[in-house]
Amino acid sequence: DTIIVWFRRDLRLDDNPALEAALRSGARILPVYIHAPDEEAPWAPGAASRWWLHHSLEALDAALRARGARLWIGQGESLALLRRLAETSGARAIHWNRLYDPATRARDTEIKQRLRAAGLDCASHNGALLFEPWEAATGSGGPYRVFSAFWRHCAPRLAEHPGPIAAPARIPGVELDGGGTVADLGLLPRIRWDQGLAEAWTPGEHGARTTAERFLAGHLVGYGELRDHPDRPATSCLSPHLHFGEIGPRRLLALTRAALPAALPLGEHAFVRELGWREFAYHLLYHFPQTPEHPLDARFADYPWREPSDTELLERWQQGRTGIPLVDAGMRELWHTGWMHNRVRMVAASLLTKNLRLPWQLGARWFWDTLVDADLASNTLGWQWTAGCGADAAPYFRVFNPVRQGERFDPNGDYVRRWCPELARLPDKVLQQPWTATSTTLARAGVGLGVNYPAPIVDLAQSRREALAGWERIKSIS
Ligand code: FAD
């Protein structure tokens, strides 16, 4: 008796409901991974995500082998491959954990129907979320559009949330010919730009668990105060691990609960609230599947964006050459490590969409390709929130001032100095706005504006006024 467990973005053995359900039935397990990027179009994994995926799949295969099974790896059309695998292995059922982005949801629905019609038992499970997107509904039965209301609904339910399932000690595996290796999938870049990623990360379930434990032991207490500081290692850096399902939110919640004083209501802790934002992002993507391409606030369809044909501005932003130090530091951190601090993501996105008035979709695409944690739900929410056109958006007139943000959250300039070493010798007072420094100060620090560091790409005050004027034009559209 054989059951196929189809791994997707749940690349772990711990707290994996699909695997657990298959094992519970006493069957032998055929673990499968199918690489089918076309089926995720137009949001097939970007370059940084593919790098991560390569290493995560290798880690999963090793963990399976250590327990008596091995990952069957293939590429092509998922439905056809699953059908063939079921035939050759004689499997009677297929289990998987659900995905929530529009393309894979549609695909999975079709696969379920077709395989069931062919007599196979198909079951999907929740391995990715604390709350299914359809479980939370407003008083009138609709989806939430405001985070605080969403979290007021969810947070009290955390107390009775079921705990995680332990990883199985042994997995009685089925081995089948015809599978390939992770390397066959060609996920690694041909030009090896990935050294910075390799230095920064350990993809895989073990890396995820170690990262979580280190964060909870060392940084959970100060998290609420320090999480906005890009100059401190104060956040968990769990986002790529969560995206690829190397650790599940139930396990993370249980570990967090154990690390916190019992008296504190779990949902009120700043870290658990952030996990709540992730849940909210999935809630929104599920109920508003058009939002990766279209603003939730339809008025923004008429916003006077700058012509995107002006590629020089976009390129300077992408390359961290805007002349605005905090933004450049963030964009370079992103390029080098595949990750950017949340505060800086907001500031960089605000500069692109408000000061440069370039469509938020261009920024979202760049993040998609360069982030190791690129996630359709969270990326869409983050970009629309910052651009002011999404759910729970900050009031449009609140345009981030990157200089003030730098002075507040990188007060000693450690972050900017790390990623923009050409500015390192500038005094703190002008570090976040080198264009205000005197020529003597610049010369003494070895900074030549327009020579070894760019002059600012826009006038921040003037461009802020233009962005607000654009908003005035659309705000009364109903
Ligand atoms: P922590 O502060 O340790 O938070 C713990 C976890 O909570 C994170 O790992 C993440 O899963 C979740 N989380 C925290 N903040 C948010 C948030 N604002 N929205 C949704 N989930 C959150 N996050 C992604 O995972 N993928 C993306 O593609 C992504 N794109 C973003 C784009 C923009 C423009 C912005 C402003 C934010 C984006 N975020 C995205 C959200 C956030 O920046 C990252 O989740 C966070 O920086 C990850 O670092 P961490 O794991 O150390 O976070």
UniProtKB/TrEMBL annotation:
Superkingdom assignment: Bacteria
Keywords associated with the record: Chromophore, FAD, Flavoprotein
Cofactors: (6R)-5,10-methylene-5,6,7,8-tetrahydrofolate; FAD
Domain Photolyase/cryptochrome alpha/beta: 1-130
Keyword Flavoprotein among record annotations: yes
Keyword hit for Flavoprotein: yes
Pfam families for the chain: DNA_photolyase, FAD_binding_7
InterPro entries: Crypto/Photolyase_FAD-like_sf (IPR036134), Crypto/Photolyase_N_sf (IPR036155), Cryptochr/Photolyase_FAD-bd (IPR005101), Cryptochrome/DNA_photolyase_1 (IPR002081), DNA_photolyase_1_CS_C (IPR018394), DNA_photolyase_N (IPR006050), Rossmann-like_a/b/a_fold (IPR014729)
PANTHER family named among the record's database cross-references: CRYPTOCHROME (PTHR11455), CRYPTOCHROME CIRCADIAN CLOCK 5 ISOFORM X1 (PTHR11455:SF9)
Name of the protein: Deoxyribodipyrimidine photolyase
Record organism: Marichromatium gracile (Chromatium gracile)
